[in-house]
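User: My instructor asked us to take a sequence, write out its structure as tokens, and then describe one feature of it. I'm not sure where to start. Here is the sequence I was given:
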Amino acid sequence: MKISSLPDVVRTSGGEPFRVHEFQAPSRRGQPFERVATTTDTDKDGNPFLVGVVLTAESRKGLLGAAQAYLSVLKAY
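Assistant: Let's start with the prediction itself. The structure tokens for your sequence are:
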């Protein structure tokens, strides 16, 4: 498995940015290519929680093809 850090994604809401990592494990049939983004947030009562948004693809080409839409979701959160 290869894990790479990608640039943080700044949220338009001004909240903590997403930290993004890319995982490549071509030998794993169910999730060979993934991007995992995590950040923190709070609910309406101020309770903290973690947020994770995952993009999974069967090929590197598929992962890259969906990357822009994934970034849009992260920025808008």
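For the description part of your assignment, you could build on this observation: Residues 2-76 form one domain. Try explaining in your own words what that tells you about the chain.
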